[in-house]
């Protein structure tokens, strides 16, 4: 039903988001369709390895579901991940898709994530390019260890400041031969340094890298809202149809939400409702003119 209603068999390579991906069923199916299209055109199947992480993405608020979705994503890539390949970012995040997805307006914008451990501001490049969160913010683990070692001879504040001085130099320097070669501006680096400082202190106080991973995942709704997608497909209450469409779809994009028939009927005004003969009591709400169909 989803393939037909969202024209996934016709569109050569739409970008797809599942904001409540669960164990990754829709994501894995989309990767399978991409592989099939590439093989039918006699293109290099290895293209899937580069295209899928860029175009097929998901998130969920359940840690176990996300772990399984990431595993299923890798399984969907099949033998490709067993061949020699460059490192890539697995685009399945642990995040609440209904949470506030702050927008960045320009390169000077700052997105602030609020948590129980405090606020973590992120500069605009960390949102416009999620590889920055993985490569650049993720590198703070090297400095965490350095600060920990310095505690034998320095106070916590001095130890943290010294490693952050080195991290600042890293942020404001070019990084050739990496996926993120551009340096941050001084203002952007100052923003990143504020988050880095809090993360290093939390590490020293026994929190390890927990908050680092949390920040890297919590930014997903804003990353996805900034990017925008051609298609959105998920299994969730129909009341979220407009919320997800407005937050994550590009202009002209289409959404399909799978839910119970009763729920779909209650929210079908102005949308296409498709009942599923193979799954009684289940229906899909799809972007389009108000009408009813059956598949």
**Unreliable stretches, pLDDT < 50, 5 or more residues?**
none
Contiguous helical run count: 13
Radius of gyration: 21 Å
- H-E string: HEHHEHEEEHHHHHHHEHEHEEE
Descriptive overview:
The protein has 295 residues and is an alpha/beta fold. It has helices at 2-5, 25-40, 47-55, 63-77, 124-128, 131-137, 140-150, 156-171, 186-207, 210-218, 220-227, 241-248, 261-266; strands at residues 16-18, 56-60, 92-94, 110-115, 118-123, 229-235, 249-260, 272-275, 282-286, 291-294.
What structural keywords apply?
295 residues, alpha/beta, 13 helices, 19% strand
What is the strand and helix layout of this fold?
Elements: H1 2-5, E1 16-18, H2 25-40, H3 47-55, E2 56-60, H4 63-77, E3 92-94, E4 110-115, E5 118-123, H5 124-128, H6 131-137, H7 140-150, H8 156-171, H9 186-207, H10 210-218, H11 220-227, E6 229-235, H12 241-248, E7 249-260, H13 261-266, E8 272-275, E9 282-286, E10 291-294
Parallel strand pairs: 1-2, 1-6, 2-3, 6-7, 8-10
Antiparallel strand pairs: 4-5, 7-9, 8-9
Helix pairs in contact: 2-4, 7-8, 7-9, 8-9
């Amino acid at each position: 039903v989803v393939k037909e209603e969202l024209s996934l068999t016709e569109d050569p390579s739409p970008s797809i988001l599942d904001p409540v991906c669960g164990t990754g069923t829709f994501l894995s199916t989309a990767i399978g369709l991409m592989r099939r299209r590439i093989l039918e055109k006699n293109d290099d199947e290895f293209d899937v390895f580069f295209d899928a992480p860029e175009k097929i993405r998901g998130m969920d608020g359940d840690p176990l579901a996300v772990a399984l979705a990431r595993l299923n994503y890798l399984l969907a890539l099949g033998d490709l991940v067993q061949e020699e390949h460059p490192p890539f970012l697995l685009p399945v995040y642990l995040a609440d898709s209904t949470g506030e997805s702050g927008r960045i307006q320009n390169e000077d914008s700052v997105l602030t994530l609020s948590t129980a451990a405090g606020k973590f501001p992120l500069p605009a490049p960390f949102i416009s390019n999620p590889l920055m969160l993985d490569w650049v913010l993720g590198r703070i683990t090297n400095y965490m260890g350095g600060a920990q070692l310095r505690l034998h001879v320095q106070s916590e504040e001095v130890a943290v400041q010294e490693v952050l001085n080195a991290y600042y130099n890293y942020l404001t320097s070019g990084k050739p031969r990496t996926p993120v070669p551009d340096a941050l501006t001084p203002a952007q680096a100052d923003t990143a340094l504020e988050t880095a400082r809090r993360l290093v202190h939390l590490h020293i106080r026994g929190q390890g890298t927990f908050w680092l991973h949390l920040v890297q995942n919590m930014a997903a709704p804003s990353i996805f809202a900034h990017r925008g997608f051609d298609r959105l497909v998920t299994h969730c209450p129909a009341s979220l149809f407009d919320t997800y469409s407005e937050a994550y779809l590009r202009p002209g994009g289409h959404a399909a939400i799978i839910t119970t028939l009763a729920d779909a009927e209650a929210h079908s005004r102005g949308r296409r409702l498709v009942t599923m003969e193979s799954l009684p009591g289940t229906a899909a709400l799809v972007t389009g003119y108000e009408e009813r169909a059956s598949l």
